[in-house]
Amino acid sequence: MKLQHIDFIDQIPKRFNSTINRREFIKTGTMVSCAFLCPSFLSAEKSNANSNSDDNRFIREASYYEKLDHKKIRCLLCPRECVVDDRERGYCGVRENRNGIYYTLVYARPCTYHIDPIEKKPLFHFHPGSLAFSLATAGCNLNCKFCQNWQISQVTPEQVQSIYLPPKDTAKAAANNNCVSIAYTYSEPTIFYEYMYDTAEAGHKENVK
Ligand code: SF4
């Protein structure tokens, strides 16, 4: 579903392939930076603008990949199965090969978060009338022409401001704001799998689904 808050998007996105498409047209024709109000229910520490992908808080070794010759890797997280050279990233733009080891760059690094009605997810028979703590990181493994949230899905982590929100804090924020569930939404959550998994476990301890 379309997100309601994006934190201080700094740039119009760059796509990771060379196809000229509507987004590229918008990028070249529109140099507008968007600033949206930051929800006040969190006091999470903001990362620096154009946040640094050498910040160790955001980096975790990827859970699913295999090592290939010449320091290449094959990511096994989604059906794209990107083969990535050393110092390069996969299609989603949030996973990087560093000396033959593959890392996610968006662990605990959401660029948007919001409390939504569960019906907006859209779920109509799962805890109807409840609230869902909703979040996403930068990046996506898809490139849909109709994407409503292209400002975050089609960018790298450096192109959008994010916050540092580790799994335990995410779960506590959800519980403290009467959210029955945490929703990994706005873009394809597979690409921040490690963060999603640990947050789901932390949420379980807070009795948040
Ligand atoms: S998760 Fe990203 S790097 Fe991995 S296969 Fe999918 S698009 Fe490629």
Describe what you observe in this structure.
There is one protein chain. The protein is an alpha+beta fold and 209 residues long. Helix 3 packs across helix 4. About 22% of the residues have low confidence. The protein is globular. The longest helix is centred in the C-terminal third of the chain and has 13 residues. It has two domains: 127 residues, no CATH class; 49 residues. It starts with 21 loop residues before the first helix and ends with a helix. It has four helices and nine strands; from the N terminus they run H-E-E-E-E-E-E-E-E-H-H-E-H. The strands form three sheets. A three-stranded antiparallel beta sheet has the order 1-6-5, with no helix packed on it. A three-stranded antiparallel beta sheet has the order 2-3-4, with no helix packed on it. Strand 5 and strand 6 form a beta hairpin. The site of iron/sulfur cluster has 12 residues, from loops.
Largest sheet: 3 strands, antiparallel
Structural classification: alpha+beta
Strand percentage: 15-25%
* Spatial sequence of strands, sheet with the most strands: 1-6-5
Gyration radius over CA: 17 Å
Task: Report how far apart the termini are.
Answer: 19 Å
Which cofactor or ligand species appear? iron/sulfur cluster
